[in-house]
Design a protein that fits this description.
Number of strands: 7
Largest sheet: 7 strands, parallel
Shape: globular
Order of helices and strands: EHEHEHEHEHHEHE
Number of helices: 7
Low-confidence stretches: none
Oligomer: single chain
CATH architecture: 3-Layer(aba) Sandwich
Radius of gyration: 17 Å
Amino acid sequence: MDNKIALVTGCCKRIGKEIVLHLAKKKYFFIIHYNSSDYEAKHLKNHLKNLNIKSKIIKYDFSNTQNIIQFSNKCYSKFGKIDLLINNASIFEKDDLNIKRIKKQFNINMISPILLSVELGKLMQEDNGGNIINIGDSVAVKNPWKSFMSYSISKSYIQIFTKSLTKELKNNVRVNSIELGPILKPNDKKIKNIYKNKYKSKNGINSILNSIDYILENKFVNGKNIMIENAESLMTSSN
């Protein structure tokens, strides 16, 4: 199989979908991961089919960390290889120090992506190498929001995890991250005024896609945290 295979987690809506449609232009084939977006997953698969792009769907809830190794192996077996993993799936909710919500966000945003990256990274090493791109949050690291403790902690891990995994996998599998600021408004419309800069979704998404291209095309880019956030992390939070 000449086409490269990409697994983009949480790829049926929003930024994940934009990434898939962009990579489809480069003739990647896809493992479409989703949790609850059944309709959107089928719609994306049909759209890719019309573009003569092969894809296979897999459903998994990242709050379940117990079966992540089985999930990893199942993903790999879909096409017999994975060339690119983009850890995009995440949850952005207030936790208000609620233990269940804290645990849920830790599992989805941090533990599952770590275990998935380690497992697939080892499989990539055994093949011809590959790329792992983590989607982080630059603001959560510098200026965590009140009532979003678990989100801020769970997304802050990405920068150090990217650098650590790079050392473990050496140069055969490159690991980088793209750290985001105000790209899209939160799904939850009750969450307002968390950013100082205005949303410019088109510019932000184009910057994400250009950064992915930059990482994939430049083989000496490894262990880097690329900021796409319009200086948001430098702003002073009122929270």
